[in-house]
Amino acid sequence: MSHHQVHIIGGGLAGTEAAWQLAQAGIRVRLSEMRGSGDMTPAHQTEGLAELVCSNSFRSDDADKNAVGLLHQEMRRLDSLIMASAEPAKVPAGSALAVDRHVFSGAVTRALADHPNVEIVRERIDTVPTEGMTIIATGPLTAPALATSIGQAAGMEHLAFFDAIAPVIHHDSIDMDQCWMANRWDKIGPGGGEGKDYINCPMDKDQYQAFVQGLLDGEKTVFKEWEASTPYFEGCMPIEVMASRGPETLRHGPMKPMGLDNPRTGRWPYAVVQLRQDNASGTLWNMVGFQTKLKHGAQVELFRTIPGLQNAEFARLGGLHRNTFIQSPKLLDETLRLKSAPHIRFAGQMTGCEGYVESAAIGLIAGRFAAAELLGRALTPPPADTALGALLGHVTGNVVSADYQPMNVNFGLFPTLEEVKKKQRKEAYTSRARASFGVWMGEMALA
User: Fold this and answer.
1) Which partner from 164, 207, 241, 400 sits 20 to 30 angstroms from 192, CA to CA?
2) How far is it, in rounded angstroms, from Cα 399 to Cα 405?
3) Could you read off the pLDDT of 42-51 as tens digits, one per residue?
4) CA 260 → CA 198, 220, 270, distances in Å?
């Protein structure tokens, strides 16, 4: 094959999807994948492209009531290789889309191997290319040498090696009759305002002690061997590990009540759980300091014992695992280019999206942005009220939380629809998204 026009590093879901989109646009691609060159990650088992490591599910396929199902639909409309390869690989999973891993990976690998515009090269890339259009999609287990090179290109302080994910709650599910808004000691933040940036959930002594016991007793997920040996772990202590260091530890850590007068009693509570705004529109709030390895079911059960959160609906539950990702909102422009080196785009989990489908979706749009740039065409990002646009917005700048963390697509990332009754809201989000997406696709065809 003649000289490539785009170099894609990483043959996972994002890299393969980006390669397909570019190749279909008539652009020659070199796809570098280290598996098959004598190198392996600690989690992969095969040399197949787009190997599914954790689960075999792409989650809900319901495009009317579910944000990830809507994302499936949008990707299908954009000729997604990942979604097309899932079809012949389907296994029964109710309303979810789940696949036979080997059939799925085989379909992706064959489609790219047979494409005249794609050259698959089994090689390990250790340094970020200094020139030539490049898409880096090496995923959560990026090889150490390349991770260091990415850190040098982006700034080491903007590269993370662990998700320290605190749970995120939909604001409209919080009972504000039990909580109140305030900053500790009523301090005004750097942006001014009224000093009411946090939602505070108060606990009395009995509630606190029961909660600490629940943290200690709850079922935990365990670190895999290759996660446990990662040196970056100490910086993000799980809340249950803090609790195990003594019954009062949390009251002097993330649950300290000092400086927080409960307006209903005029006094400090015994302990407090604070929520901080997580996105620009204020639909999502995160539990400050609550990264955890509790299993998801145990988290829901325990966190709903917190006053004010008894009906909490979670956009994301807490977690802590090995992951390499960059602080995308600071580093990338709206077309996923590294601002300091615009010949490089990032895609997939490296950008701080969570989940197979989301990784592939960011790969898809990265490929389309790169194709448009090479072909001299304008490509406006998808509208913020579509699933793809909402996810891209999370990655490229809608996050206000100081510590950017990976996120699945969910309706909390979409612009709000306040005037719609809660029961009809999901369908309202998806029908608005479909209309917007159709208009955007029409504009794209004319560009």
Assistant:
1) 164
2) 9
3) 667 788 999 9
4) 10, 31, 10
11 carries a ligand binding annotation: yes
**pLDDT, tens digit, 9 for 90 and up, residues 202-235:** 999 999 999 999 999 999 887 766 556 554 444 5
**HEC states along 130-188?**
CCCCEEECCCCCCCHHHHHHHHHHHCHHHEEEEEEECCEEEHHHCCCCCCEEECHHHCC
Would the annotation count 38 as a binding residue? Answer: no
Ramachandran assignment for 289, one of left (phi > 0), alpha (psi -120 to 50 degrees), beta (any other): left
CATH fold match for the domains 6-159+324-446 and 164-322: no
CB crowding 262-298: b at 16 or more within 10 Å, else e:
beeeeeebbbbbbbbbbbebebbbbbbbbbbbbeeeb
Q: Which fold has domain 164-322?
A: Elongation Factor Tu (Ef-tu); domain 3 (2.40.30)
Domain boundaries, the chain: 6-159+324-446, 164-322
- Residues whose CB falls within 8 Å of the CB of residue 204, separated by 6 or more in sequence, listed in order: 269, 270
Cβ pair 290, 278 in contact under 8 A? no
pTM score? 0.81
Q: Confirm or deny that 10 is annotated as ligand binding.
A: yes
Predicted local distance difference test score (pLDDT) of residue 230:
54
Which of these ranges, 122-136, 276-290, 392-406, has the smallest mean pLDDT?
A: 392-406
CB 166 within 8 A of CB 407: no
State yes or no: 12 annotated in a binding site. Answer: yes
Q: Is 143 annotated as a binding residue?
A: no
Q: Which two tokens stand for residue 104?
A: 């799925």
**Degrees, nearest 5: CA angle 401-161-190:** 25
Structure tokens at 240: 């249950």
6-159+324-446 folds as FAD/NAD(P)-binding domain (3.50.50)
Written as one letter, the residue type at 166 is A
Contacts 24+ apart (CB under 8 A), 249-257: 250/208, 250/212, 251/208, 253/289, 254/288, 254/289, 254/290, 255/203, 255/208, 255/289, 257/202
